[in-house]
Design a protein that fits this description.
Number of helices: 4
Helix content: over 70%
Shape: flat
Radius of gyration: 76 Å
Keywords: Coiled coil
Structural class: mainly alpha
Distance between the termini: 207 Å
Largest sheet: none
GO cellular component, one term: cytoskeleton
InterPro entries: CFAP_domain-containing (IPR051147), DUF4200 (IPR025252)
Strand content: under 5%
Pfam family, one: DUF4200
Protein name: DUF4200 domain-containing protein
Number of strands: 0
Order of helices and strands: HHHH
Length: about 270
């Protein structure tokens, strides 16, 4: 009997563990289902957002189609308006051109009316010439005017050449005058230099003459000194025996001999006293 309650307790514990295991498995499944539901809810929300965007896009596309039709109509109207403006501008330009042409036509008619008198004059002149019609006469007059213009141009060219030659001549005359003034200035400078050199030459000539005169005087004085020295030497040479005779032009040695003689003579006088 004791084994019966124990067995019942074991069965109860086993059932409890099984229930807990089933509960844990159920909790796991519930958690998994909850995650799946959350994922589905998130996906549903995303689908709702996408559906809303799709509806908005569909509405925008419908509006775009409507706007595109309106834009096409506006573009067509704008194109037609531009074409109308272009045609109106072209029409205005044509009106201006037509007005200018009419004005030129009016001016030509006025010019023809003013110059009808010249045509009448040409007709009267034609009767006095050998020409057959007015065109031939006007051609001849145009030829004469052409030759006149040609000769007039040649005459003007000749006058221009004459003017250029005159200018060249004036330039040459100015250059010649300038060259003449330069040469005169150079000649004046040369005359001044010549006079200066002549004055210096006269000064050097006077100095040279003075030098020559001074040299002549000194030469004369030197000759006198040499003669006096020679006389003294000859006087002392006669009194001194045994001395060799010196050259008459060797004045320095002659003076030395005279000096020696005077010293010897003075020594002798001192000894005697």
């Amino acid at each position: 009997m004791a084994g019966g309650p124990l067995r019942d307790s074991s069965f109860a514990l086993f059932d409890m563990q099984k229930k807990r295991q089933e509960e844990e498995e159920l909790d796991t499944k519930i958690q998994e289902r909850r995650q799946i539901l959350e994922s589905l809810q998130q996906r549903t929300d995303e689908l709702h957002v996408k559906m809303k965007k799709a509806r908005d896009l569909h509405l925008s596309f419908d509006m775009f189609l409507k706007e595109e039709d309106a834009d096409r109509a506006a573009q067509k109207a704008e194109k037609e308006r531009k074409e109308v403006l272009h045609l109106e501008a072209k029409l205005e330009r044509l009106k201006l051109v037509h007005a200018e042409l009419m004005e030129r036509k009016q001016e030509q008619q006025c010019w023809i009316q003013r110059h009808c008198v010249y045509r009448d004059l040409l007709v009267r002149m034609l009767r006095m010439t050998k020409f057959d019609d007015v065109q031939e006469l006007t051609g001849h007059i145009q030829s004469l005017l052409h030759f006149q213009d040609h000769f007039y141009k040649r005459e003007n060219k000749a006058h221009e050449q004459v003017d250029q030659l005159k200018e060249s001549l004036l330039t040459l005359e100015d250059n010649h005058c300038l060259l003449w003034l330069q040469k005169n200035h150079q000649m004046s400078q040369l005359h001044i230099e010549i006079e200066k050199m002549r004055s210096e030459a006269l000064s050097w000539e006077r100095q040279w003459n003075h030098i020559q005169e001074t040299a002549a005087k000194k030469t004369l004085l030197l000759g006198r000194i040499k003669m006096a020295t020679l006389n003294l030497y000859e006087m002392t040479d006669d009194m001194v025996e045994g001395d060799e005779t010196l050259n008459i032009n060797d004045t320095e040695k002659q003076l030395d001999k005279v000096k020696m003689f005077i010293q010897d003579y003075e020594d002798c006088i001192v000894k005697q006293h």
